[in-house]
């Protein structure tokens, strides 16, 4: 029966079946250079497993090649070495690896109990490796394997290209994600700004309400004072009206008394005249005749009639005095009493007005003292708060400065006298990531070391006042030669957005700086970098520049 046989890793027609034995732990390596040593074999085959023995076999008929027999401690190591190293190039020559067979022509026989390969190494003859037919088959097999290797290499190249495309796509995705993250960050910053504005408006509204309440309280106090003054004025008006009425009553009484006096005086005059007339007529009657007596009698009757009228008038006046006299006397007696009551009432109202005025003055003084005490308390509290805030700010500035110093010391360790551009780029990227992530406030204020200034200077030699447009251009000119185009474009875009004044205002970076001089210097340096980044960003985006053309 025609079968195949395994030789040097290949199967060949072998004719009649002949069973052979082989050592599964031992391999033979052929087509080695003459200067190959045992150390070289250990170097190339130790990686497959522990090696028990390595023997070099010289074949004079083989010309400039030698063989080596390698014995491993395990079958797995021998199989792995045969599979991995067969047809590999070692020291510029392709080698062949196979198991060592026993009992075949020209191959070593299994060692007996009294012999060892270590003691008497067997040398192979040319007949063991002869046969043009087998050599041709081996060459064809080798060519086929070389073609397979080339095919595998082409497949690997295609896989590499696909991986490169996937990497580029991943970079684009990462860039879009970065832009989206920046947009989200800007939205968050805008939302925080709106929240702060709403809180500020709420605080202003609360202050307005407090002021309105204070004004309302003051208005109520003023209204109370006005009401008290109005009441006092009303009382004074009532007193004046009462005094006027009393004076009017006094005037009327006086007029009545004058009228009564005139009436009494007229009655007395009439009585006196009547008496005189009666006396005259009586004297004339005593010296005249009868006619004279009759005339006198008539005059007497007339006088009597008049006297009766006067008596009736007096009686009427008396009756009238009896009717109205006590009231007039009471009014006359009440007049000084009313004046005293009026004066007492006026004094009482004057005292009440003075007491009210004193109470108002006392309240005003107490209110002024209370306000002054509140102002002093507020001033003391504000001063203490300002001192505490200043101390906390100074401590925060020292902590942030120390953090930046330690970071720069770690970067600059060992390169104090020499600062390469690669270190400048690494520091810029590190500080940029910190700058974007930190939420600067009075607890962690912005300092000169916190800002990723695009410059090639060593951090220990950098001063914010030294930042110029040329320094920024020099930095990115150096960076452009060290980065790929996409990475450079992304770096320029992020830096341009990072130093934009609107970005600084939205993040309230300068608000965290209480030192006015440092705040002005940081703002000036940031504006310089922002102005220098605008043309660089336009060039990186392919925008035509009027001075330098297309980038």
Automatic annotation (TrEMBL):
Coiled-coil annotated spans: 195-222
InterPro entries from the UniProt entry: Nucleotide-bd_a/b_plait_sf, RBD_domain_sf, RRM_dom
Chain intervals for the UniProt region annotation (Disordered): 311-383
Molecular function terms from GO: RNA binding
Presence of keyword RNA-binding: yes
CDD domains: RRM_SF
This protein's UniProt keywords: Coiled coil, RNA-binding
Protein name: RNA-binding protein
């Amino acid at each position: 029966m025609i079968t195949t046989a395994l030789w040097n890793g290949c199967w060949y027609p072998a004719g009649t079946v002949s069973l052979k034995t082989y050592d599964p732990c031992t391999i033979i390596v052929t087509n080695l250079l003459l200067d190959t040593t045992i150390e070289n074999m250990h170097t190339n085959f130790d990686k497959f497993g522990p090696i028990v023995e390595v023997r070099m076999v010289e074949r004079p008929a083989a010309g400039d090649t030698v063989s080596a027999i390698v014995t491993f401690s395990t079958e797995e190591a021998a199989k792995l070495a045969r599979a991995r190293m067969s047809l590999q190039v070692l020291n510029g020559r392709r080698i062949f690896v196979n198991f060592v067979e026993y009992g075949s022509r020209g191959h070593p026989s299994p060692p007996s109990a009294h012999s060892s390969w270590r003691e008497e190494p067997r040398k192979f003859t040319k007949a063991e490796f002869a046969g043009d037919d087998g050599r041709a088959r081996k060459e064809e097999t080798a060519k086929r394997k070389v073609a397979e290797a080339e095919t595998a290499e082409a497949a690997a190249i295609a896989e590499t290209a696909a991986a490169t495309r996937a990497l580029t796509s991943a970079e684009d995705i990462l860039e879009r994600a970065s832009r989206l993250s920046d947009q989200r960050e800007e939205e968050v910053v805008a939302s925080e700004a709106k929240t702060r504005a709403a809180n500020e408006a709420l605080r202003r509204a609360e202050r307005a309400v407090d002021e309105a309440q204070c004004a309302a309280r003051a208005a109520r106090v003023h209204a109370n004072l006005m009401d008290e003054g109005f009441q006092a004025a009303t009382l004074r008006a009532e007193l004046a009206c009462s005094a006027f009425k009393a004076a009017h009553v006094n005037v009327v009484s006086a007029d009545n008394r004058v009228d009564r006096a005139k009436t009494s005086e007229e009655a007395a005059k009439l009585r006196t005249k009547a008496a005189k007339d009666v006396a005259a007529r009586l004297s004339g009657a005593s010296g005249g005749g009868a006619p004279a007596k009759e005339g006198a009698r008539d005059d007497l009757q007339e006088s009597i009639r008049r006297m009766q009228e006067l008596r009736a008038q007096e009686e009427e006046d008396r009756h009238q005095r009896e009717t109205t006299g006590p009231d007039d006397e009471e009014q006359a007696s009440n007049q000084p009493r009313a004046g005293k009551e009026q004066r007492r009432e006026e004094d009482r109202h004057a005292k009440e007005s003075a007491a009210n005025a004193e109470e108002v003055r006392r309240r005003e003084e107490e209110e002024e003292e209370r306000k002054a005490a509140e102002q002093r308390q507020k001033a003391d509290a504000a001063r203490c708060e300002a001192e505490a805030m200043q101390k906390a700010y100074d401590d925060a500035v020292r902590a942030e400065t120390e953090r930046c110093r330690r970071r720069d010391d770690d970067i600059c360790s060992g390169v104090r006298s020499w600062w390469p551009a690669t270190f400048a780029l690494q520091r810029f990227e590190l500080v940029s990531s910190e700058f974007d992530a930190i939420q600067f406030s009075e607890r962690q204020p912005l300092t000169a070391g916190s800002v990723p200034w695009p410059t090639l200077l060593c951090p220990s030699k950098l001063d914010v006042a030294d930042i110029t447009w040329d320094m920024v251009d020099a930095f990115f000119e150096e960076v452009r030669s060290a980065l790929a185009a996409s990475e450079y474009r992304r770096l320029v875009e992020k830096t341009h957005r990072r130093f934009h004044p609107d970005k600084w205002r939205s993040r309230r970076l300068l608000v965290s700086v209480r030192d006015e001089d440092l705040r002005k210097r940081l703002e000036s340096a940031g504006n310089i970098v922002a102005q220098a980044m605008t043309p660089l960003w336009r060039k990186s985006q392919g925008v035509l520049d009027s001075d330098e053309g297309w980038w």
